[in-house]
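[job 4471] stage=fold_predict status=RUNNING
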Amino acid sequence: MSGTKQTRPTTAADTYRQRRQTVDALLEELRGKLDAHAKRAATDPKNWGYAGDLGHVEKVLRDLAAFTR
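[job 4471] inference complete, writing structure tokens
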């Protein structure tokens, strides 16, 4: 053990800040995964599955965008 104690957020602002950092990290991870997906799709341009994958991603992102307005 390192001897440092992790503290829980004590205010709504602290919780918001921590969750915003997590969301930002997830968005960055998603960008990387989309880039990797695009590379795989480029190797198989006749495969409609990749387009379908992005259709699903688009729908989920639109739902999230509507939720956070």
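[job 4471] summary: The two ends are 42 Å apart (CA to CA).
[job 4471] exit 0
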